[in-house]
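Bumping my old thread because nobody answered last time. Still need a sequence for this structure:
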């Protein structure tokens, strides 16, 4: 069970969900939300990471638009609200807020050593930009949408980045996947895994596209990646 904290951002203060490891000591990980806000799924990711020994902090990146958004993927109305928020959201200010969240973690009592980040969907794109623009020590992106439009930033990725790509992603068509893989193949900091036969959000528990086998493999790879680069 986590707690709400306030983060001092460049443009103002915003809330975040903090999950603390049982040891009360360890590295940090920023958990970057999907389009549904800081909901039970995002908090569950933070709690999972805390169980692995990390301080996991999930910032409310929609705070400029509508603070405290908490939606599910189970009704058309919630989908429409989430998509509207995504379309109005500015990824550049989102990355600024992620850097502020990293900064907050680095000075949080008990956080020892490095701080990384992990993001999903919209958060997967933001995770890619986090790897390119912030001082995150290691970053993971699950099924990031529109990464192919930001490949010009790949040259600034100088810390480890792992991508989890759904081969049948309805939001990231094959041509976009090919562009991403080709655009990043020469960067030795980037590792990409493609999961055959699964769709977008295959790692979202309770979602219609959830695939236990693929999610389990991706999460094991994420855990090993963070252990190697943050531990």
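Sorry it took so long. Here it is:
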């Amino acid at each position: 069970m986590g707690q709400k904290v306030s983060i001092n951002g460049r443009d103002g203060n915003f809330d975040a969900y903090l999950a603390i490891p049982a040891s009360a000591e360890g590295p940090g990980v920023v958990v970057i939300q999907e389009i549904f806000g800081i909901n039970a799924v995002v908090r569950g990711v933070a709690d999972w990471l805390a169980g692995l020994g990390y301080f996991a902090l999930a910032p409310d990146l929609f705070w400029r638009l509508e603070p405290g958004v908490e939606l599910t993927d189970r009704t058309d109305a919630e989908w429409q609200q989430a998509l509207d928020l995504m379309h109005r959201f500015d990824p550049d200010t989102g990355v600024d807020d992620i850097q502020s969240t990293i900064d907050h973690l680095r000075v949080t009592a008990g956080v020892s050593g490095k701080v990384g980040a992990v993001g999903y969907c919209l958060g997967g794109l933001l995770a890619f930009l986090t790897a390119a623009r912030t001082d995150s020590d290691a970053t993971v992106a699950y099924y990031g949408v529109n990464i192919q439009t930001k490949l010009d930033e790949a040259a600034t990725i100088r810390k480890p980045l792992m991508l989890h790509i759904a081969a049948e992603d309805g939001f990231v068509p094959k041509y976009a996947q090919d562009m991403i893989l080709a655009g990043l193949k020469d960067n030795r900091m980037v590792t990409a895994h493609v999961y055959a036969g699964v769709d977008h959000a295959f790692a979202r528990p309770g979602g219609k596209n959830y695939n236990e086998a693929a999610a389990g493999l991706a999460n094991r790879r994420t855990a090993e990646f963070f252990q190697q680069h943050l531990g």
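The two ends are 23 Å apart (CA to CA). Let me know if any region looks off to you.
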